[in-house]
Structure formats: structure tokens, C-alpha cells
Automatic annotation (TrEMBL):
This is 16S rRNA m(2)G 1207 methyltransferase. Gene3D superfamilies: Vaccinia Virus protein VP39. Residues 186-352 form the Methyltransferase small domain. It comes from Succinivibrio dextrinosolvens. The keyword Transcription regulation does not apply.
Length: 356
């Protein structure tokens, strides 16, 4: 696999990591980022992505299991698979902060606000990101913190540096939202690191409208759980054995917060790369991801559809909502004996797939 443009930008500036007490946070989507801290005095790498963090752990001869949060310490490196809030108590004071930019600007603002307490005065704060994902204008995030300059521009990515002189407090938590489907009401905390803020996305809304008609029996999986709404909905329908899985530590943490908020106790969370390493279920419900960072891809969903029959008990059902234009109907028909369209609009389609 080719190295990411952001990694290549940083690799040509790798001297900024040498002999520094370093924190790396944000959209850590390339395991090779870990190779940049070889000559750091100490490095704390906070990684939200389970697949990337597992690969990083393997690079230093360690194994990352499916628990979240999880810390792996090796020589001068602390590798933390976690949401940012849970990671904070384990982050050491640093003189350098590298922020790999999220497409959600407010998530970067949140990281700055939370991590500045871990920085010495005069610390260096860097941002690195794709120009079309906010990298080109990231100096606007750094200027309030102190003197800011552009360090490098390469591979359609930009690297900025600020000297930490001023503390800022510009982040505010997203407001809770209320979701009602039929006679089921759910309250949800939100997080800028997790898909869809401000309201429930239309795709999940259509999926829930179809799920409300099913008979609650057996084991259920909320695959790619995000804020946890599908698993909570299944619990309120009457399912008693529910697993909510996601590749994102922030999503798992938010799901746990939302299950507590809704007094739901029969949902367990687990880190997973789609279906890899998961059990067999009677119901799998999924609104599969379409974006990885600022890129779009259908490959993970296609692989999930191909593997789904192996993760369903006899008579088990896959319920999936996806953008209508992506046309997953054919790949579903190639892997399931019965495929139905339960609901369809110009934007989203809800599929029911089953092997009898």
C-alpha cells in the first residue's frame, strides 16, 4: 500500500520530531506515522482508528486486542487506542503537538482545547492535512495560540507551525438530540468525532423505520455503531443480546455514554474492523461507512456483504441502508438467496438480505 500524502509531507520534515517530547493526535490514518517518532525523546500517539492502531502495535512487536480504551507502552512510545477524553489522563506533558487534521474542523478545535493543558509554554503546535480537507487554511486555527508560519507544502498537503503562547477556549460541546421512531424515543449525546451531528442522518432514520417491524429474538449486531442509536433502538424493541461494534474509539465511547443516558444495559461495545473477528448473529443492522478521512470508498462495504453470510446464524437477516446511487443490490444478490428492498428514496435504500 502506498504511503499517505500526509505521511510523505511529514517524512520530509521528520527532523521536527527528533529529541522532542511529542503528542500526535487527530486523524491518524497511516500506520507509518509511528516510524516518525523513532528519534523522539518521548512520544504519545493517540489513535482513534482500531485498524491503524493495531497495525502500529504490530510495528513495535505488540498486539492490540478489541478492548477500548487500551494503552501499549514500548520503550519511549505510548500508543493509545482511545477517544480523546479517555486518553487525557495518560498523556504526558509535551513540548510538541502534532495534529493530523480531521475533515471536521470542530474536532481539531476540540483537540487543541483539551490538549493545551498538556503543553509547556513555548511548545510547538503543528497541523498537517490535505488542502481540500482544511490543511491549507489551518493557520486560522493556530493563530490565536501564538506566532504561526507555514513550514511546507507538498502532495497537496500543508504543514503549519505555531508557538504556544496563549491558551484558547473556543470549543463547545454539541447539543444533545432527541430521536423518535414510532413509540420509541431516544436521547443522544453528540461528538464532533462521530458521524452526523445536530440530527439523526436520513439513512439511519429510514433504517430504524424498517427495524421497528421486526420480532426481537436472538443475537443482534449494530455494525459500525457510530453514536449507538441502532443498538439502543434494538434494545428498546426487546432484543436482550446486542453487540455494538465500530472501528472508531470515539464512536465506541459515545455509544457507551448513550446507552447509559437511555438506561440500556444489554448493549456491549467492541472494537472491530467491520465483521472481522466478530461472532454469528441473528440480526445484523448496518449503515456502512462511505468516507475514510476525506476520501470516499465502497470497498469495505462490498467486503462486508461478501463476509456477512458467515456471520449470520441459520435464518439470520442483514438489514442495510446505503446511498441509493451506490447500487449494492447486485452484490447482495450474489451473496444472499433472498434480497428485498424495504424502503427506497432518491437518496437512500434499505435492503433486507437473508439465506434461508
Amino acid at each position: 500500500m502506498a504511503n499517505s500524502p500526509v505521511y510523505e509531507l511529514l517524512e520530509r520534515n521528520r527532523d521536527i520530531f527528533e529529541n522532542r517530547n511529542l503528542i500526535i493526535a487527530g486523524d491518524v490514518l497511516d500506520p507509518m506515522i509511528l516510524s516518525l517518532v523513532k528519534n523522539s525523546t518521548h512520544a504519545t500517539v493517540i489513535c482513534d482508528n482500531y485498524v491503524v492502531c493495531k497495525a502500529m502495535a504490530a510495528m513495535i512487536g505488540q498486539n492490540l486486542n478489541s478492548d477500548c480504551p487500551q494503552i501499549i507502552s514500548y520503550k519511549h512510545v505510548d500508543l493509545i487506542f482511545s477517544d480523546i477524553e479517555s486518553a487525557l489522563p495518560h498523556v504526558k506533558t509535551a513540548d510538541t503537538l502534532m495534529l493530523l487534521l480531521s475533515k471536521a474542523k470542530q474536532q481539531t478545535v476540540k483537540l487543541i482545547n483539551l490538549l493545551e493543558d498538556k503543553l509547556e509554554k513555548g511548545a510547538y503546535i503543528y497541523t498537517a492535512g490535505a488542502n481540500d480537507g482544511g490543511g491549507k487554511s489551518a493557520d486560522s486555527l493556530l493563530t490565536p495560540l501564538g506566532s504561526t508560519l507555514k513550514i511546507d507544502l507538498a502532495r497537496k498537503c500543508t504543514l503549519f507551525k505555531a508557538i504556544f503562547e496563549n491558551e484558547v477556549n473556543t470549543y463547545s460541546e454539541p447539543k444533545d438530540i432527541d430521536v423518535t421512531v414510532g413509540d420509541i424515543s431516544i436521547k443522544l449525546h453528540q461528538d464532533t468525532a462521530v458521524f452526523s451531528q445536530g440530527k439523526l442522518d436520513k439513512g439511519t432514520e429510514q433504517l430504524l423505520s424498517c427495524l421497528k417491524k421486526i420480532v426481537p429474538q436472538g443475537k443482534a449486531l449494530d455494525l459500525g455503531c457510530g453514536c449507538g442509536v441502532v443498538g439502543i433502538f434494538l434494545s428498546k424493541l426487546g432484543f436482550k443480546d446486542i453487540t455494538s461494534s465500530d472501528v472508531s474509539a470515539a464512536a465506541l465511547h459515545l455509544t457507551e455514554k448513550n446507552t447509559q443516558l437511555n438506561n440500556v444495559s444489554d448493549v456491549k461495545t467492541i472494537a472491530a474492523d467491520m465483521l472481522s473477528g466478530l461472532d454469528k448473529y441473528d440480526v445484523i443492522a448496518v449503515n456502512p461507512p462511505f468516507h475514510v478521512g476525506i476520501s470516499t470508498t465502497t470497498a469495505p462495504t462490498v467486503n462486508m456483504i461478501i463476509n456477512a453470510p458467515e456471520h449470520l446464524n441459520k435464518g439470520g437477516v442483514l438489514y442495510m441502508v446505503a446511498n441509493s446511487h451506490l447500487g449494492y443490490g447486485e452484490i447482495l444478490k450474489q451473496n444472499f438467496l433472498r434480497v428485498e428492498i424495504l424502503n427506497s428514496s432518491n437518496t437512500f435504500t434499505v435492503y433486507k438480505a437473508q439465506n434461508l
